Amino acid sequence: MAENLWTPAAVRRLLLGATAFYLRDGTAARDPDEVISHHRTAWTELVPKLEEIVPARALRRRQEARDRLLGSGVPGDLAADIADLDILAVLPAVTEIARIAGRDVTIAAAAYLLVGERFGLDRIAEGAQSLGSSEAYERLAVTGAEAAIAAARRRITLASLASGGPAEQGLDGYQAGDRARIERAMRELNEIADAGALTLARLTVAASRLTDIAGGDGPVVRQNS
User: Fold this and answer.
1) Could you write out the three-class secondary structure of the chain?
2) Per-residue pLDDT tens digits for 26-47
3) Per the confidence metrics, is the pTM higher than 0.90?
């Protein structure tokens, strides 16, 4: 996705994703001025610290996106800002997680991004963007699976932040609580992320596995014995 962020279609996806979050999360029911101010402050705090909190794989993708944009003739500062959008697209979710957990937005972002890295969720989300369909029920299935993954990722992030420590320590503690089951789910999710073109079936399985370890409602897929 990163190399195409400057195209109108990609920007549209980014805006629609943020809008869907606000509607699904209930944020839209709060005072708009308060929400805008809260998220603007979070953006200002987070941007200068991206190098410190973004996992290595995402940093490499960010640099590759910046290089591609520069190679296409995009000015340096603009190329950097556009490449950052791929990471900063998580800001709405991160800001609300920080508010709920009572933690600094930088710590919340580090935890959220680390969950995405370990479970392969950002790569799965990127693959889901290619699952266009003219069939209404298939579109509903994709949207439902994406919502289930987002909700489960949020619950895992909040659980990892509950320790009060750094992001990595918190997620390590969360994994230790049910290590065998969580690590099995992590392997399956990363296999899906690395399997090539994402399919609706794979996306549904990913949502089911993540929901299973995070708790909550989501698509149900039986575990193979």
Assistant:
1) CHHHCCCHHHHHHHHHHHHHHHHHHCHHHCCHHHHHHHHHHHHHHHHHHHHHHCCHHHHHHHHHHHHHHHHCCCCHHHHHHHHHHHHHCCHHHHHHHHHHHCCCHHHHHHHHHHHHHHHCHHHHHHHHCCCCCCCHHHHHHHHHHHHHHHHHHHHHHHHHHCCCCCHHHHHHHHHHCCHHHHHHHHHHHHHHHCCCCCCHHHHHHHHHHHHHHHCCCCCCCCCCC
2) 665 677 788 788 888 888 888 8
3) no
